Amino acid sequence: MTTKSTASPTPAGPFAIEAEGLVKTFGGEVRALDGVSFGVERGTVLGLLGPNGAGKTTAVRVLTTTLAPDQGRARVNGFDVVGQAQQVRESIGLAGQYAAVDENLTGRENLRMIGQLLHLSRRDAGRVADELLERFALTEAADRPSKTYSGGMRRRLDIAAALVHRPPVLFLDEPTTGLDPNSRNAVWSLIEQLVAGGTTVLLTTQYLEEADRLADRIVVVDRGTVIAEGTASELKAELGETVLDLGFADPVTAERAAAVLAGHWPGPPTAEGTLVELNVTSGPSQVMLALRVLDEAGLAPGTMTLREPSLDDVFLNLTGHRTFADEELEEAR
Amino acid sequence: MTTATNVLPEPATPVRRSKLAGAVGDALVLTERNLIGYVRIPEALFFSTVQPIMFVLLFRYVFGGAIATPGMSYVDYLMPGIFVQTVMFGAVGTSIGLAEDLHKGLIERFRSLPMASSAVLAGRTTADLVRNVFVMVLISAVGFLVGFRVHTNVLAFLAAIGLMLLFAYALSWGFSIIGLSAPNSETAQLMSFPLLFPLVFASTAFVPAATMPSWLRPFAEHQPVSVVVNAVRALTQGGPTARWVVPALLWSVGLLVVLMPLAVRRYRRAI
Predict the structure, then answer these.
(1) CA dihedral B89, B91, B92, B95 (to 10 degrees)
(2) What is the residue range of B246's domain?
(3) Under CATH, what is the fold of the domain A241-308?
(4) pLDDT tens figures, B254-265
(5) In whole angstroms, what is the distance from residue A169 CA to residue A200 CA?
(6) Interface of A with B in 45-74 (CB under 8 A)
(7) What is the ipTM metric for this complex?
(8) Residue B127 resides in a domain
(9) How far away is chain B from the Cα of A86, in angstroms, using its nearest Cα?
(10) Of the candidates B10, B22, B111, which has its C-beta nearest A119's C-beta?
(11) Which residues of B touch A (CB under 8 A)?
């Protein structure tokens, strides 16, 4: 089975999504996008990774034609998002942040409505709705108003609604935010199946783990600009494989420990409160080194943990600030 | 959900339609969707008719005795005002509904679909028109129960109902602009009332303008609500009809012609 779509892509170029220097300002002050450029190759997944207010949702809105950029250009499936908005809309599916389904309608009615709005015949709209309900494990709940659905079911219905016209390009804005681990896994495996079928996916996320599992390439955005780009392993290599956290009795001791360790480390350790954080590539041997250095200086840590780097670490490393500092910009609009 | 290839539905070819037929079709799909919402939450519809019924009873039996109306009984004077007030307050529902759609992300989804950009507003306002037909029938019944009588003929009464539905439809487009501009549905409701109250109460809907202070009288006599109410009175109670019906039609059509494109423009910029 081929993934035929309603809008045939223009043959030129390997990119399903191209953004060039996108700028979007709100109220003349907040630069939600400040010159964002990236490309997504056909049949691949791009993870747009960043904290709240980084500009992820604004980027999705520009690429899905719901918001016009102030500057810059973008093409989706070969069509310009401003000049050829209609063709772009025929090429894309969008599942936004809020699980945008009509709560008063049943799952079946929601999907049928989307089919009819896409100008399928009543029969086809009904048939497509039934198929999607079955494939998204919603058949049993199909005739219940969607307000009775769990968060995971609603999210599945939302993604199903984005697939009615088999779009070659799918936008997922934080597809698993607020879901429990089981529902999150179900959504992840759905996305993987879609990608295996040839769909190009742009997904925004706040979770490194999610980008790591699903994305072929990751673009890290912060305050409207791209601050890093690469595969998950490239980003991690840049960051170090693991993070060593050393806890001390008080901030002054922590500062001293960080200073002592600095001379022995390729990347500078960061001290925050009573915690010293080190990016390490070979865990155990560097733990021993750290302890030896600290022992010689007469500083004994109270706690010690080795862990995977989090999005917060990526940010601290790339920008020098933590993600929560950006929450004041949340949903800038 | 077992193999990679069967997540997507089997392909279906969209039916080719002209741009206009497509836009009308989209609007009808969304009208149906909004009407299903009304049917699924009958409480909302029920309570939206309780308030006008209370107004009928309040003015008919509490305030009415103190209000002198030349040439007709107070209940005959009152009911045209109640009808117009009811459809106007009903138009607030348009702004609330759209504010909800906007903040639940539904409008973002609709905007990302290759559908007519007028359809969401047309679907909402048309559903509200249908709701108004239902409300009119109910309030008429209540009016007849408390002594309201049509002193002309059935056709003139139906013309009066039609005129009010047209006026309400035009207002719905105006209130949709408020709905698309409000930060949430509660605020949409609050934002609507400062506009509604002067129009509904500084009018000839419930009392003759003659008793109002001289600075208020010109406004109360000539603003669109009074014009429509007076037209409905002429159509149901007799008297020179063209004097009020023509300006009432002009107001309704004029508001529609101005508000429709403004609302669509606001819709294109919403989110």
Answers:
(1) 180
(2) 21-269
(3) Alpha-Beta Plaits (3.30.70)
(4) 999 999 999 999
(5) 5
(6) 61, 64-67
(7) 0.88
(8) yes
(9) 6
(10) B22
(11) 1, 3-15, 17, 22, 25-26, 29-30, 33, 36-37, 40-41, 104-106, 108-115, 119, 271
Tokens of B200: 């509904």
Would the CB atoms of A116 and B113 count as touching at under 8 Å?
A: no
Total tally of structural domains belonging to chain B: 1
CA distance A19 to chain B (A): 18
For A15-236, which CATH class? alpha beta
Q: Strands A30-41 and A242-247, how do they pair? A: unpaired
Contact present, A322 and A316 (Cβ < 8 Å): yes
B68-79 burial code (b ≥16 CB/10 A, e <16): ebeebebbbbbb
Task: Please state, in angstroms and rounded to a whole number, the distance separating the CA atoms of residues B187 and B190.
Answer: 5
Instruction: Give the model confidence (pLDDT) of B232-262 as tens digits.
Output: 999 999 988 899 999 999 999 999 999 999 9
Question: Is A176:A184 a contact under the CB 8 Å cutoff?
Answer: yes
CA dist., res. B84 & res. B205, Å (int): 8
Which residue in B has a C-alpha nearest to residue A168's C-alpha?
A: B8
Q: What's the token pair of residue A75?
A: 């093409």
B37/chain A closest Cα distance in angstroms: 5
pLDDT tens track for B150-164: 999 999 999 999 999
